[in-house]
Amino acid sequence: xxxxxxxxHGLPHNPFNAIVSPRPIGWISTRGPExxxxxxxxxxxxxxxxxxxxxxxxxxxxxxxxxLRASGVFCVNIVEAAxxxxxxxxxxxxxxxxxxxxAAEVPKEECRTIPCPRVADAPASLECRVxxxxxxxxxxxxxxxxxxxxxxxxxxxxxxxxxxxxAFRPMARLGYRDYAVVREVIELSRPGEG
Length: 194
Hints:
By secondary structure, this protein is mostly beta strands. It has helices spanning 16-19, 63-71, 84-89, 100-103, and strands at residues 23-24, 26-32, 35-41, 44-48, 53-59, 73-78, 108-110, 117-119, 124-135, 141-153, 158-159, 162-163, 171-175, 178-181.
């Protein structure tokens, strides 16, 4: 099968978001004029080491976007298998001003380097200062870039001096209504490495 996106695919569901998978889930927390907000974004990833930087994309001018534009900050919380139901609950279309932390019973704590809440029991949280909001092609598509200013690592996820994903089993987005749990890790050296 071949299709041009502008012509449509003819399938019952759009295959695009299932093709680029698995994708990490950025559980984005913000604080804006209308209060605290928490929402999952599956168009999320790290994009640079020094300084550390991340990105996520929002389809639609959502509460998270309005809050981070007002505050200039956001926090990325990593989603573990144990938090899948709570993460999903925060994706509901709540009325504007609803605190998803409270609605989904997600424990929160204050960040240290930015005025923003974070998921208290997340395996890792990345405190970020917004560096750029880019309007993408299409209607209400936005790319948010941020510099990481603080990193929280849950103690039980540190093993032998490494952040160990097998300690918490990260969640990934596949597409449609499908998710994956990382259960197996394969270590592989690059050619020429000792």
